[in-house]
Write a structure and sequence with these properties.
- The chain is an alpha/beta fold and 159 residues long.
- The chain has one domain: Nucleoside Triphosphate Pyrophosphohydrolase (Alpha-Beta Complex), CATH 3.90.79.
- It contains two helices and eight strands; from the N terminus they run ββββαβββαβ.
- The strands form two sheets. The chain has a five-stranded mixed β-sheet, sandwiched between helices. It has a three-stranded antiparallel β-sheet with strand order 3-2-7, with no helix packed on it.
- Strand 5 and strand 6 form a beta hairpin.
- The longest helix is centred in the middle third of the chain and has 13 residues.
- The chain is globular.
Amino acid sequence: MPVADGPRGLTSRVHVVAGVLVNERREVLVARRPPGGHLAGLWEFPGGKLESGEAPRAGLERELWEELGIRVLAARPFIQVEHDYPDRSVLLDVWRVRRWRGAPRGREGQPLAWVSPAALEEMSFPPADDPVIAALRECVGLQDPCAPATHSAPQRSRY
């Protein structure tokens, strides 16, 4: 997806998929980013970069299997966020994973935590996740926590 005005002359966005998993206590699953990488040590929603030519749903299923050891059974788009970091531009494509098989575990050694949506604001997340956390806050009181957001176009966020 070409972008004419990316940071530092970048010409494309990195397409990243992430899953929002909510348990029966209405807690959201988060993972800590590994040391030594981009945004090391911050919390995030599990997922990762799409491979070349990979569809977002397929990428979500692959990433959650690789990172958490779960099989996605039902997922719907939740929110998309475009964000420019100083060194890269990302399209964060977040899905609400409604059903999965298996117990999530950090298969890559990453710590995981189930936290209430309110507690997300007390944790350190990458700036691109701010609109995701806001969308989660809006839907927490609903019968179905985290129903798909009604945003038709990606939200624009700047670091």
